Amino acid sequence: MVARAPREQDRWTVPDANALVWRIWDDEFLIYNTASGQTHHLNLLAGEALRSLAATAASVRELVSRLADEFAIAEDSPPLQMTDRLICELDELGLIAPSN
Amino acid sequence: MHQRFRGPGLRARIGPFIFHLRSPIRGLVADFSFAYADFPICDESEVSDFRVCVSSALGRRPWRGVQAQFWSDGVSPLGTFPRQLAMPYAEWGLNWCIYSYAHQFLMFHSAVVEKAGRAALLAGPAGSGKSTLCVAMLARGWRLLSDEFALLDPPRCRLLPIPRPVALKGISIQLAEKLLPYSRIGRVFAPTRKGTLAHLRPPADAVERQAEPARPAWVLFPTHAENANTRLVPLRKTAGFLRLEENCFNYNKLDRTGFDALSQLIETAECYELPFAHAAAASELIDSLAERQPVTDLPLDAT
């Protein structure tokens, strides 16, 4: 299934945070999804985004704001300009879903 | 021995398994008896994990010569093969039994050697140089845990020995004769689907200690190339995890247990790529890892 592009009003969440098992080594994330049986390798930005959504649902704009705070970078900095795409990819992997 | 193989069969304890073996093929009995000479024989009251038979096969294609077939509990996974190659096929058949059924372990395609209770996994696909490097490690006094399988016991995060014969291919046969002059090497089989092949009888010490597990300390991914710059290249833990997962037979079968066990192994061990041109130089590097990392843990029987 191909995920659709996120809309501004969409809020995103991890459907079952308890299903995810986390390992964080050297600023890289390995996530085991007990629901799908799949293992995912995420970089620091993607891992922190997922961790943030697992804690509380957020729109793309809210997520950008949280990540900017987390990494002490500007909201329009290059890594955060790709947050839309990141959301799509996490959705395609079945790690997140719209909460509304 | 031949009568027993032909009749009721023989129960041998090989690592954590008991194999019940039967065969009327004299050549196989001789080769097997040579390669497994030091393994303990179990009495008939002990339940076997695998019941294996290598029998002559009906020759539907007489031009292919006399054929044989490997059976395990009514399944023949390898088809028919030339009877004179019964020993290599029996070995591949035993491999098949283990990776098809032994899901109480997380299993990797890897040789494993041990020193002072700490094990080095030499992981990689066929042709990466595992067996050659394994021989070089034995020459440096490391104990053979396995030439083919790393068997990780998930609850304890320990590697269990299964010190079956080392499958030597091509030039590694001459290397083993040179590095291990007192070792015993069986008949040379050629050609097999893996080229020229011979089996190194596992050192008696490795068989005697086949109930002693080891703690994973190093995960190495050797790749042999004649022009390689032999060196240890440290790997990040995530990269080590993903590389080892590629070499795992049953990671997906074990679900969460597999993830937890592999994570624990990776947390415990250092991971390296090991491109090498000469096994002796590569084995020296592995030895240096053990020397520069002092043994600080309790002995295994105290944990």
Task: Describe this entry's structure for a reader.
The complex is a heterodimer of chains A (100) and B (303). Chain A has 100 residues and is of the alpha+beta class. Helices cover 38% and strands 21% of the residues of chain A. Chain A has four helices and five strands; from the N terminus they run E-E-E-E-H-H-H-H-E. Chain A is globular, with a radius of gyration of 13 Å. The relative contact order of chain A is 0.25. Chain B has 303 residues and is an alpha+beta fold. Chain B contains nine helices and 16 strands. In chain B, helix 4 runs parallel beside helix 5 (172-179), helix 4 packs across helix 9 and helix 7 crosses helix 8 (255-268). In chain B, the strands form three sheets. In chain B, strands 6, 7, 8, 9, 10, 14, 15 and 16 form an eight-stranded mixed beta sheet that branches. Chain B has two domains: 2-101, no CATH class; 106-291, Rossmann fold (3-Layer(aba) Sandwich), CATH 3.40.50. The interface between A and B is medium-sized, with 12 and 14 residues.
Q: What is the structure about, briefly put?
A:
Chain A is of the alpha+beta class and 100 residues long. Chain A has helices spanning 44-55, 60-71, 78-81, 83-92, and strands spanning 12-13, 20-25, 28-33, 38-42, 97-98. In chain A, 38% of the residues lie in helices and 21% in strands.
Key phrases:
heterodimer; A: 100 residues; alpha+beta; 3-stranded antiparallel beta sheet; two-stranded antiparallel ribbon; 4 helices; 5 strands; B: 303 residues; Rossmann fold; 2 domains; 8-stranded mixed beta sheet; 5-stranded mixed beta sheet; 9 helices; 16 strands; globular
How are the strands ordered across the major sheet of chain A? 2-3-4
Helical content of chain A stands at: 25-40%
The number of domains of chain B is: 2
Determine the N-to-C terminus distance of chain B: 40 Å
Tell me the overall shape of chain B.
Answer: globular
The helix-and-strand class of chain A reads: alpha+beta
Low-confidence stretches of chain B: none
Tally of alpha and pi helices of chain B: 9
Mean pLDDT of chain B: 92
Oligomerization category of the chains in this entry = heterodimer
Q: Can you identify the CATH class of the largest domain in chain B? A: Alpha Beta
Amino- and carboxy-terminal Cα gap of chain A: 19 Å
* Tally of helical segments of chain A: 4
Taken as a percent bin, the fraction of beta residues of chain A is 15-25%
Order of helices and strands of chain B: HEEHEEEHEEHEEEEHEEHEEHHEH
User: Strand portion of chain B, in percent?
Assistant: 25-35%
Helix content of chain B: 25-40%
CATH architecture call of the largest domain in chain B: 3-Layer(aba) Sandwich
DSSP summary, beta strand count of chain A = 5
Number of strands of chain B: 16
What general outline of chain A do the C-alpha atoms trace?
A: globular
